[in-house]
Hints:
Helix content of chain B: 25-40%
Number of strands of chain A: 6
Number of strands of chain B: 19
Oligomer: heterodimer
Order of helices and strands of chain B: HEHEEHHEHEHEEHEEEEEHEEEEHEEEHH
Largest interface: A-B, 27 and 24 residues
Helix content of chain A: 10-25%
Structural class of chain B: alpha/beta
Amino acid sequence: MQLFPCPFCGPREESEFHYGGEAGNLRPDGTDVTAERWAGYLHMRDNPKGPTREIWMHLTCGEFFAMSRDSVSHKVSGSSALGETEHGA
Amino acid sequence: MTRHYSALSLLREGIAGQTGWEKAWRSPDPKASYDAIIIGGGGHGLATAYYLAKNHGVTNVALLEKGWIGGGNTGRNTTVVRSNYFYPESAAIYGLAHSLYKTLSKDLNYNVMFSARGILTLAHSEAGMETAARSVNAIQVNGIDCELFSVEDVRRVVPIYNFGPDARYPVYGGTWQPSGGTARHDAVAWGYARAASRLGVDIIQNCEITDFIIENGRCRGVVTSRGAIRAERTGMAVAGHSSVLAAKAGFRLPINSYALQACVSEPVKPILDTVVISPDTGVYVSQSDKGELVIGGALDRIPSYGQRGNLPVLEGVIAGMLEMFPIFGQLKMMRQWAGIVDVVPDSSPIIGESPLPGLFLNCGWGTGGFKAIPAGGTLLAHLLATGRHHDISRPFDLDRFARGRLIDEAAGSGIAH
Lengths: 89, 417
């Protein structure tokens, strides 16, 4: 069982966490957003092989946070509370 | 040299000391240019090469594989073939694959050991039975063979199932596709490779794509670890690594890559002669011709390119398998592994020209690519040969995500993916 670091609770077992998506995928704003832009936000992903920054939820405390991880080795390099780059200003 | 596989050639080679067999496929050096390039030497890529040569007469083709053929998901799946899908578009594509599987051994002169042993998807509640009935109706309307099973039917087909009074997931019935079954996964890759090579396709292994050659906004070939190779049309069938190649070509795909695990037990005498899927335990089991129980389950819910898999899902799969078949509690597990699958929001494949003209896609099969190999090959070959969609592949174009015309099979398939 791998341990993930919740920035609020500390290291916990991976099964306590839920993947929430790639960090920085911001919802488009305004009334003139094209179908392609919506499809990009809703469906298109970088899906990187190697270093990645993602949004996760710690199910037991209910908090969202950002985690930096390697998608090949699964090594976690850090986690932090959500900042402006993850959910917009 | 002996080329054709038959009882007679077996006998002849037996007498001759097995010295006359021709190599199953050639291993030529890559040429500087071809009529078409196929990236990915798994089942879908190899089938594409074969149908390009056989159906369209395009034989000046290179198939490029970064490792060895059949070493990715084609060698890592649980070999199930079925076509019991909910939507007509899906029934058409998986039905095409299923019908080609039935005669594949003969077509390829290679025994892929397709065995129509039937597939049982269980229902564990009254609500589950209602969903099963709806599913059976839809599948029958699609022209696919499928029956609604009662508890008695399930007991007849799988007498060793856990029908005990204290079963955590009691059986209420299920759906049954009698023509579904299994095929030998490696043989599918090797059979297509041998047949494609015979027709003139160059199969080039240990040849990794490092970049695309892009001129005037069009894909004109690839740069590889063995030099540049040019072609007017390039197709890619690389499953879980589709996003990695797409990034090199300058676009994104609606794909998340996840590890999908499977494991096999030690070989035992025949005890399970069908494929059993339990959506509630999230586990499915069949027995290989070698006698091993082949066990698969749900995805690891952590995006991953590591072909290993994590422990919590494996633990859940084994627990579910023991709940379904307590008799398997004495078995020793022999091997566990994972493949990297390309999961799409609507659980349906992506086939069509990519945002980079001249580059064509066959990806997004998620957890169910093996069963679709003959169709994926037929349809990508059609695109590469004609530049246009086959009627069956048109609904699966990448443009469906911007148009909102998704084909959401998550509910229609036996297991969530």
